[in-house]
Design goal:
Helices cover 52% and strands 5% of the residues. With 80 residues, it is mainly α. Helix 1 (15-28) packs antiparallel against helix 2. The longest helix has 23 residues, at 46-68.
């Protein structure tokens, strides 16, 4: 007997995850440092260090969300 078709499972849209992604993406683009290279920290412009830190945080947060909040077990176990 065949299973009745089920609606595809959707991941829950969590507002705090999307808000964190937006904030980290905003940090990665140096809007506040347009046209300047001062101040220098360890010989590098501050905007470069802020962008680099934001990029690492964005990558780490993406890994955290993928490993802890992205539920793929339903799709893996439902193979035909």
């Amino acid at each position: 007997m065949q299973k009745p078709p089920q609606a595809p499972l959707r991941e829950p849209a969590r507002v705090w995850i999307w808000a964190t992604f937006v904030v980290l993406l905003f940090i990665c683009v140096p809007y506040g440092f347009v046209g300047t290279y001062q101040p220098l920290v360890f010989g590098l412009p501050l905007w470069f260090l802020v962008t680099l830190l934001g990029s690492f945080l964005l990558g780490g947060f993406t890994m955290y969300v993928a490993l802890r909040h992205w539920r793929l077990a339903a799709f893996i176990l439902d193979e035909d």
